[in-house]
Amino acid sequence: MAAGGGRNEYGCSLQELRTLMECRGHEAVSKIQSDYGGVDGLCKRLKASPQSGINESEVPSRKQAFGANMIPPKPPKTFLQLALEAMQDYTLIMLIVCALVSLAISLYQKFRTKTPGETHGDDSEEQAGWIEGVAIAFAVVVVVLVTAFNDWSKERQFRGLQAKLEQEHLFDVIRNGQVSKVLVNDIVVGDICQVKYGDALPADGIIIQSNDLKVDESSLTGESDHVKKGEDRDPILMSGTNVMEGSGRMIVTAVGINSQAGIIFSLLGATGEAEGADGDDKPAPAQAQKRSANDKPNAEQSAPHPEAVQLTAVSGAAGSSPAGGDGATNHVDDEEKKKKYSSSKEKSILQAKLTSLAIRIGNVGSLIGAVTFLVLIIKYCVLTFAQPPTGAGLEFNFTRDLQKFIDFVIISVTVIVVAVPEGLPLAVTLSLAYSVKKMMKDNNLVRHLDACETMGNATAICSDKTGTLTTNRMTAVQVYLGGALEKKITKKYSDYPKEISEMLCKAISVNSGYTSRILPAEVANELPKQVGNKTECALLGLVLDLGKHYDDYRREVPEEAIHKIYTFNSVRKSMTTVINRPGGGYILFCKGASEMVMSKCAFILDGQGQPRPFGKPEQEQIVRQVIEPMACDGLRTIGIAFKEFVPRGSGQLGPNEVPLDGEPDWDNEDQVVSRLTCIGVIGIEDPVRPEVPAAIRKCQNAGICVRMVTGDNINTARSIATKCGILKPGENFLVLEGKDFNKRIRDPNTGQVTQDRFDQVWPRLRVLARSSPQDKYTLVSGIIASKMSAGREVVAVTGDGTNDGPALKKADVGFAMGIQGTDVAKEASDIILTDDNFSSIVKAVMWGRNVYDSISKFLQFQLTVNVVAVVVAVFSACVISDTPLRAIQMLWVNLIMDTLASLALATELPSDELLERKPYGRTKPLIDTTMLRNIVGNALYQLVITFFLLFCGDKMIDTPIEIGSRVPTEHFTAIFNAFVLMTLFNEINARKIHNQRNIFSGLQRNLLFVLIWITTFVLQILIVQYGGMVFRTRVWS
C-alpha cells in the first residue's frame, strides 16, 4: 500500500502522493495499478469523479490538506544588491579606479611635506584637488543609483505584471460536472484538468484519458526529445512541462512546492520554506537534480520573470533545440553548445560596441598620459640638469627629483581621468529606461532591456503570416463539394445531398477542439466572437451558415466518447479524430492542408453524395482547378475527409468502407489514415491587416528586409505576400516551400546544411511556405551566421506557437504574440506584442534606432568636450604650467555632460526620419565618419577659441592676459565662460548626427531638452557673476 502514514480525509497522504510522482513510465503504471487498482481507484481515494470532477465547496479543505498551487516568490533583491550588480560594468569599474587614484593623489598633495619656498600654483586649487576624484565618484554613484532604481522599478513592474497574470492565467478544470476556467493558483489536488497542445502544465497529475499526448519535459529533465504519454505507457504529467501534441485529462496529485517543479524551486532556494510540508528531507528525483545543476540562469536585467513565481513554462523548454532537429544547423554557430550553458547572456550589439569604445578611449587616454609624462620628464631634465643658458645646471637631488617625478605622474593620471567618458553609462541607462516605458504605450512589452536597442539595428524580420500580417479573423468564403465549386457560399444544408452535408457538418463539429466555439457578439452590430483555434472557428461558422449547430453533433459525441485523436502538428499538418460508429466499428474524420489530405484519399463524394475513385489524375485536376485558384485569391485551403471501419460480416460493404477484424493498430498512423474519402475543400479567408502594407513599406524604406515564414500553401503565401508588399511585380525574389528550401541548402551527400549553399538562397528568399519550426530555426541561424553582408545581419523573428521557441531564442530579437502566443513562445521572446500586430514591430524599430541615435548623440557631445579638455590639460601641463580650467569649474562641466546632457539627449522622441536611413548592422563602428568629423571639427573650433583667448584675449576683450595668477582673474573667467557656452551650443549641434542641416528641427517636441538647456544657461550666468572664490570666477569690470 501507500508509502507513508498520516492519511487525511481523502485517503492519501502528501508524502504518499509525492512518492507516486517520483515514478516514471511502466513503473508508475504498475504502482498505480497495485496500490490503487488503477487510476479510477486513485480518483476514488481522492474523492474525485473522473467525469464530473470535485465540488467547488471542497476547494478550501483540499488546500488545507495538500497545499495551494503557489510557490512563494523569491524575495526581491535588495537595493544594495542591485547597486552592486550595476557596478559590474567595465566602464564604471574603470571610473572607480580613476576616482580612487585621483583622490589618493589629491590627499598626497595636501599632506606631503613641501620644501622651503616651494610653490605649487594656486593654493586654493591645490586645496580643491579632491574635486576631480569626487566628481568622478559622483558620476559613478549617479549611474549606479539610476541603474539600481531602474532595475528595482522593473522588478516591481514584473511583480505587478505577475499579479495581473495570476488573475488572467486560467486553466480548463472540471468541477461540479462542468468545464470551467479556473485560476491556476486555485487548482487543488483532486481537480480534473483538461490538457491540450500549447499548455504549460500548472501542477503534477496522473493521466485519466489521453489522445496522442506528447510532452516536452526538457525544463525538468534536460532531455529535448518529446515524451509520449498515455494511460498504459507513462501516465505521469509534471508541472512546468509543456504539452507539444495531443490532448487529454489528468487528475491533479501535487501542487505548489510539493510538485516536481516546486521541489526544484526549493532546491534552488526559490522559497524559504522546508522542502516538504511534512518535514521530509528526501531529495528530488535525479532528473530534477540534473536539471537544477544545468539550468541556464537568467541574466536578464536582474528582475525575475513572472514565470519564476507561478508554475508555468520554464525557460529551458524554450531554449531547447527544435523537436526532431537533426543537428543540421550546427555549422551555423559552432559555439551554440557553449552558449547553452553560459552563465551570462551574450552582450547586445550596442553593449559590445560601447565596451569596445570604452576600452579604446582608455587606451588612447593612457597613451596621451604616457606621452605627457615623457614630455614633462624631458622638459624637467633639460631645464634642471642642462648647462646654462639652456638649463639651470643643477646636480641630481633624490628628494627634489623624486617629488617632481611624482608630480608628473599625478599630471599624467589626471589627463587619463579627463579622457574617460564618465557620463556614457548614465546616458545608456536613461535612454533605455525612457524608451522601454514609452514602448509599452506602443504595444511593445519589453522583457529584456537590451532588445530595445538591438531592434534598432535589425536588418531582417522573419514574420509569421496568420494573426501578424493578417487579422486572424477567419471566414469560410468558398467551398468545393459534390464536384462543384461555389465561389460565394449561398447554399444551405438541404441544398446538398444528405450524405455530403451530414458528413461535412459532423466531420467539422467532432474533428475540432471542443474549446473552439463561436459566441454571440458582445456588442450589437459586431461580428460573433471566435474563441479557440481561428481556423476551426471558420469551419464551425460554415456549419452555422449551412443552418446546423455544431453543439448538436458534439452532444451526440461528447469529448470523453472520442476513441482516438491524432492532433495537429507541424509535421502532420492535419488533425484526425476517430469515434465509434453506430452499429459497430469506427468512423475517422480528417481535416488539414488540402494537398496533405487529398494525397491520403482514394475516393471522393460525387454530386449525389456517392463515393467514386479518386486517383492521381483527378487529384491533380482538383489542385489545378480548385486549390490553386483559391490559393491565388489568398485563401487557406482545408481538405475534409473521412473513413469508415465496418465490422466484417455486417453485410454488403461500400467501395470506400474498410472491413474490420478486431481493433486497428492505431499506432500505425500511416496505415490508419490512408485510403480516405474526400468530402470537399473549403477556402478560408484571413484578410491582411489594413495597416500592414504601409508598415512593410516603411521597413523596406528603412533598409529592413521582411520575409514571410508560414505553414500555408505556397500560392496562398505568395498571394498574401503580394498584398502585403513583401513581393512586388517584376522583382526576382524566391518563394520556396520548406522541402525545396532544404533541398537547396543541404549537401546532397551528407544531408547537412552548409553555409555556402545557404548563402546562395537567403538573400533572394522572401517567402518560405509549408515550413516547419525547424525550417524557421535554420533560416534564422543561417542569416545570423552569414558574412555576406558588410555589416552582418541582425535578425528579428515573430512567433506564437510552442515550436517557435527555439527560433525566438536564437534570433537577435524575438517577438511573441501577446494574444495568440503560447506560454513557451512568450518565455522564449525578448518583446511581447500585446496587440499581435506587425505595425507594432515598426514602432519597436523606431524606438530602437532612437535609443542607438540618442547614445550616439551623447557620445558626439561628450567626446568633443573630452578632446578639448584633454588637449587643454596636456598643453597647460607641458607648456604654461598653469590651467585655465580649474577643478571646480570642470566639476560644473562634468555635471552638464553627465547628468543634464544625458537627460536632455536621452529623452528625444522618435520621428519618421529614423526610418529613412539604412540599419547600422552588427559590425558598423559606433563612431562613424560623420560623427568623427563633427567631433574633430567642433573640438578644433573650441580649441582655437580657447587658445586665442588664452594668448590673445586682450585683443578681443578688454582684460589683461594673466597666466600664473594665484587669484581668480577676468582673463581665465572669460575662457571658462566661453568654454561652457561653446559646450552648451554644441549640445544643440549634437542632436543631429546624420548630416542634417537644420539642427533646430524637432526641438519643440522635446520640451525637457529646452528646459534643461535654458536652466543650464541661466546657472552659468549666475556662476560667472556670483561664483567668486568658490568657482574661481571674477566679475568683468
From TrEMBL:
One Pfam family from the record: Cation_ATPase_N
Localisation: Endomembrane system; Membrane
GO biological process per UniProt: copper ion transport; regulation of cytosolic calcium ion concentration
Top-tier EC class: translocase
Record region (Disordered): 274-341
GO cellular component: endomembrane system; plasma membrane
EC number: 7.2.2.10
Bilayer-crossing regions: 90-108, 128-149, 357-385, 405-434, 863-885, 931-951, 971-988, 1008-1028
Entry's Gene Ontology molecular function annotations: ATP binding; ATP hydrolysis activity; metal ion binding; P-type calcium transporter activity
Reactions it catalyzes: Ca(2+)(in) + ATP + H2O = Ca(2+)(out) + ADP + phosphate + H(+)
All residue ranges annotated as the Cation-transporting P-type ATPase N-terminal domain in the record: 35-107
Superkingdom as given in the UniProt entry: Eukaryota
Biased composition (Basic and acidic residues): 331-341
Keywords: ATP-binding, Calcium, Calcium transport, Copper, Copper transport, Ion transport, Magnesium, Membrane, Metal-binding, Nucleotide-binding, Translocase, Transmembrane, Transmembrane helix, Transport
Membrane topology, record value: Multi-pass membrane protein
Family under the similarity heading: Belongs to the cation transport ATPase (P-type) (TC 3.A.3) family.
Role according to the record: Catalyzes the hydrolysis of ATP coupled with the transport of calcium.
Record-given protein name: Calcium-transporting ATPase
